[in-house]
Amino acid sequence: MNRKQRRMLGRVLAAAAMLMLLALLPDGGPLRSPPGRALRFALYLVPYLTVGYDILFKAAKGIRNRQLFDENFLMAVATLGALALAAGGEWSGHGGDYLEAIAVMLFYQVGELFQGYAVGRSRRDIGALMDIRPDNANIERDGKLEPVDPGEVPVGSVIVVRPGEKIPIDGMIIEGRSNLDTSALTGESAPRGAGVGDEVVSGCVNLTHVLRVRTTREFGESTASKILDLVENASSRKSRSENFISRFARVYTPAVCCSALALAVLPPLVRGAGMGLPPDWGDWAYRALTFLVISCPCALVVSIPLTFFAGIGGASRAGVLVKGSNYLETLSKADCVAFDKTGTLTRGVFEVTAVHPERNPLRGPGVPDEDALLHLAAHVERYSTHPIALSLRRAYPHEADGCRVEDVEELAGQGVRARVNGRLICVGNSALMDAAGAAWHPCTRTGTIVHIAIDGEYAGHIVVSDVLKPHAKEAVTALRDAGVRRVVMLTGDAQAAAEQMAEELGIDEVRAGLLPEGKVAAVEELLAERAGGKGALAFVGDGINDAPVLSRADVGIAMGALGSDAAIEAADVVLMDDDPLKIARAIRISRKCLGVVWQNVIFSIGVKLVCLALGASGAANMWLAVFADVGVMVLAVLNAIRALFV
């Protein structure tokens, strides 16, 4: 509880204590004389002003600024009017009850106090969840570690991260190996190993050993700073529900004020002039004041933004960054999800998945044919930077075996040829085999086929494929469980390879052979097919080459790669650990959040409509008005906080 809330609590307790003492005053005697009545009014005015002076001040300020129709104005008019009615009854000899008017203000402030505490608590919870930005960085000087402000550390500096400390700035490990806790970024508790040459991002916690990290970014551009900025500024992008509530409040408040005025004036005039009955101005004024207290829109105005704020914070804890409540609302409607393949459903890392030798002239004792093919391919591709070459070298890492590799020549669009121990080895596609005069044959396996020829004779082929992510198949199943009716894959791969992968994953539809502009056109077609529908199209990509498609879809979801700049800039939603299984979780979070929003809308408006009808008919008093305002607000705020827990 902050200082302001503590002061408010003190005022509430002081006013409540004064009311208890005033309740002990005798009902008759000297207090019924004119001076006694004035003293009685003054005594009750003290607790009223103690607990409500700030409301009166805000109402007066709103009137001065010509922005009078808000909850402060409603509460000030209602309670001052109730005090005036009580004073009128007191002076007319019919008796007056000041307690009711003061109690309305008292309970309203109790509700405001609770609301402020609940909102502050939710912000602190989210702040604690996102407390990933360290306060200092360790620089080694003269053999000693000196903590400095991370904002003062230039790019290229070497910082030391001890076990138990957060990595303050993005960089690359130059010394040491350790396990990192990335849960604050990804929501996953399993530690991740990292060693020399690995990139690390700020916000991760070093668990086991000392690391020396060379910084690659400034502190303000590091992952932790960007994530915090995204979460803190998410409230600036309001959803349609929030904008509706804002517009609703601007129309609703003047409407109920005019209705209350009509309720106070028209029925007495009709009774007096048209029906010949006593006007009974006091009774209808009391009903109008009760009507005003009931009509206060606090529950909606407070709980709806708080629900979205809590939903975005809860998603952040799960490793899903949502850039605004408008995107959270759109995500909740997603019924069609289109995937890019490479880097999204697959790891984007090629691996050797099969070796099919034809014959092996270099076979020696105890050496299998498969190893011989990999041996030759790895040696020929040793100088290439192509992803296929890297996968071949990873499959056969024993290059330091004394083989002599000469005359390496890379042929654009075909492959590589070289002499290995004096023999001409060609490694590449079918065009290279044709050029070498090797009688190659196709392979039925899905993937990139790397053919190998030795001195013009076909020796076999190696299948290199992009590997599926561990949770790719589960992710598609989870999307169907979450209510997504259509799953599409957009890829640049050949149709046969794409269809085989789609069948393995359970994807409904495949559009293959697409360049980046082709993916945009495919998304345009999907959007056109859904024209007029109530759902939304989500596109999932890697946030780099898929930026145009991410921005064109109803909601773009990027694989964040622990803070990829392109992903954070291009997408509306970022998955911080590249796990496609998080997509279904993000949809469930968004739907829970929107469910809480509509629960609060229906409950708040429903209760107020019933209580307004009771107030207008005279069946409700100020105590019911307190429940309709403060009670409903407290219940709505409590319900809103549920969105924080996913």
Structure, explained:
The chain is 51% helix and 18% strand. The protein is α+β, with helices and mostly antiparallel strands and 646 residues long. It folds into four domains: 3-128 and 236-307 and 594-644, no CATH class; 137-167 and 169-221, Calcium-transporting ATPase, cytoplasmic transduction domain A, CATH 2.70.150.10; 308-342 and 470-592, Rossmann fold, CATH 3.40.50; 348-468, Calcium-transporting ATPase, cytoplasmic domain N (3-Layer(aba) Sandwich). The strands form four sheets. A seven-stranded mixed sheet has the order 10-22-21-20-11-18-19, with helices on both faces. Strands 2-1-3-9-4-7 form a six-stranded antiparallel sheet, with no helix packed on it. The longest helix is centred in the C-terminal third of the chain and has 37 residues, at 581-617. It starts with a helix and ends in a 5-residue tail after the last helix.
What's the shape? elongated
Q: Which percent band covers the strand fraction?
A: 15-25%
Q: Could you tell me how far the N terminus lies from the C terminus, measured between alpha carbons in angstroms? A: 25 Å
- The gyration radius over C-alpha positions equals 36 Å
| Total domain modules | 4
Secondary-structure-derived class: alpha+beta
Mean pLDDT across all amino acids: 81
Helix content: 40-55%
Question: How many extended strands?
Answer: 22
The major pleated sheet works out as:
7 strands, mixed
> Going across the major beta sheet, what is the strand order?
10-22-21-20-11-18-19
User: Poorly predicted ranges (pLDDT <50, ≥5 residues)?
Assistant: 363-368
Number of helices: 20
| Oligomerization state | single chain
